[in-house]
Amino acid sequence: MSKDKKRIVVAGGGAAGMCAAVCAARSGAEVTVLEKNNILGKKLSMTGNGRCNLTNLKIDDSFYNAASRARMKTWLEKFGPLDTIEFFRSLGIVTMSEEGYVYPVSEQAISVVKALENELIRLGVSVVYNSQLKSIEHKDATYSVKTSEGLYECDKVIIATGSLSGAKTTMSTGDGYYICKKLGMNVKDTFPALVGFKTADEDIMPAAGVRSNAEISFYLGEELLTSEKGEVQLLSDGISGIPVMQASRDIIRLVSENKLVYALLDLYPEYDEDSFDRLINEMLRLRDNRSIVELLSGFGNSNINEMILKRMKLSPTMKVSNISESMLRCIFENYRKLKFNIKECSGYLQSQVTTGGISLGDINDDFSFEKDDGIYVIGELVDVDGRCGGYNLQFAWTSGYIAGNAAAI
Ligand SMILES: Cc1cc2nc3c(=O)[nH]c(=O)nc-3n(C[C@H](O)[C@H](O)[C@H](O)COP(=O)(O)OP(=O)(O)OC[C@H]3O[C@@H](n4cnc5c(N)ncnc54)[C@H](O)[C@@H]3O)c2cc1C
Predict the structure, then answer these.
(1) Are 342 and 199 in contact (CB under 8 A)?
(2) In the chain, where are the structural domains located?
(3) 7-192+354-408 in CATH: which number?
């Protein structure tokens, strides 16, 4: 073995860790991956509803929460979506794009995990399973990496232990935050993100299970916090769906501080004020002997209609002719401003990512620790989180590629 060959330990065999290990080994390093689970890439195998949304062709730094947008831009320029597609092509993974969202043509996330795993084997990377990183000690020119099953000596360490988000089975327990803190890094407060919310509204039950293309806007008092369009899902105790998850990144801190955040759901997002007003006037012309539930049956989903009538304390069988015009207007306007009072988020277990983490202020451009540049921190552990749509995996590949190559030098 060449004297210059770097011995690198990668703690965490998820998306970022496997990418870093492949890149470091391709650059000639001797790499060992320590993985707490008994398999590699458990969370990766669950991504994109099992299809793995690898990256997104519509990308720039604005898709991320990062303390430095300029650095995010530079990182994406170093290794962006096209590089990701080429990287996976080199592993035998052919990709396809659906309006910019990139998936493997197999539409199976497990094929992505297996391709990375096979490349690690081909490159002679040693993978140790059931090995939980406990601590890292800098000894002279080397590092002593302590795990649940033994000690590893190396020249560089890459910490890629992920976040707190995802199902229990992914073992996402956030070990890295504690370990990095002990090494002297600043850890920004963490919160679940890309997550749904529980609401304080007890009358939501009849609408449970409804999915509707809508616009959802979140407010604190009169202030509009954020707005998203897409398929909103109503649950028995809350709201979810992609638009709610996207918005969660902007409101999670306020919700955690118990601020009175509320959401207004617009079920007629394609209508402007005038056209919706005309629509209401047309509906008012149908004010005859039919019941209110009959009138609403063509206006909204029956479960939502039931919820709105319950909320307005109106009997579904009430004759429309017995309801005043102003009251009818009020009923219709609910379809533009259906209010939900946000109680709390659905928690780390239900979240796709964690916002917060290792401060960018402690990390050099190659993802090494500013105070000890033989230690690298990558992936979701870092205080960077992206929108839903392939952006978080892209950051895992980007940080893995940059750190893996830098560590091997
Ligand atoms: C259900 C779900 C679906 C998602 N879908 C998408 C998607 O389609 N597109 C997208 O861009 N993003 C998606 N994400 C987010 C994406 O999966 C993560 O951002 C990404 O996996 C982060 O990569 P990572 O390597 O930093 O962490 P992880 O992939 O979580 O990997 C961390 C690894 O470290 C191991 N580990 C933890 N602690 C230790 C320790 N002490 N010692 C050793 N090993 C340890 C873990 O077992 C794990 O294997 C999804 C997330 C979830 C939960």
Answers:
(1) yes
(2) 7-192+354-408, 197-345
(3) 3.50.50.60
**Band (3; pLDDT cuts 50, 70, 90):** low
The candidate with the shortest Cα–Cα distance to 55, out of 17, 119, 112, 10, is 112
The minimum-distance atom of ligand 1 relative to the CA of 11 is: 43
Residue 360 has pLDDT above 90, yes or no: yes
Q: What is the 3-state secondary structure (H, E, C) of 348-378?
A: HHHCCEEEEEECHHHECCCCEECCEEEEEEC
For 212, the token pair is 């509707």
Which pLDDT does position 171 carry in this prediction?
72
Protein residue closest via CA to atom 22 of ligand 1: 380
Structure tokens of 297?
């049956």
pLDDT in tens, 68-77: 999 999 999 9
Q: What pLDDT does 288 receive?
A: 87
Which of 128, 97, 91, 129 lies closest to 111, judged by CA? 91
32 Cβ closer than 6 Å to some ligand 1 atom: no
Cβ of 180 below 6 Å from ligand 1: no
Tell me the per-residue pLDDT of 96-148, one tens digit each, with 9 for 90 and over.
999 999 999 999 999 999 999 999 999 999 999 999 999 999 988 999 999 99
Token look-up 């396809």 returns: 96
**Burial letters for 84-99: b for 16+ Cβ neighbours within 10 Å, e otherwise?**
bbebbeebebebebee
**ipTM over 0.95 threshold:** yes
DSSP 310-340: HHTT--TT-BGGGS-HHHHHHHHHTTT-EEE
Residue nearest atom 39 of ligand 1, based on CA coordinates = 161
